[in-house]
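Progress report, Aim 2. The chain analyzed during this reporting quarter is listed below.
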Amino acid sequence: MVTISYLAVFILLGSLITCIDTVLFDYTFLEVFYQLFRYQLLQDRIILYSTCLSGLVWAIVVDVRIKRKKGHPKNP
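Predicted structure tokens for the chain:
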């Protein structure tokens, strides 16, 4: 569930940025979407992708931990 929430937040924030840029700068949807993921510097691209990947990995780890905890209840 955490992974689905992470992906939903990522997609919704990307959509929100796209809508705002479309209204403010009079670009088309595809132009804004292309500019969101096109960076001139390799360092910016590495920061973006590593942040997204680490967030996805952490969401999967949390989901696995929650599933394990539900599967093995502790006996008092």
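The first helix runs from residue 2 to 25. DSSP finds three helices and no strands in the chain. These observations will guide the mutagenesis work planned for the next reporting period.
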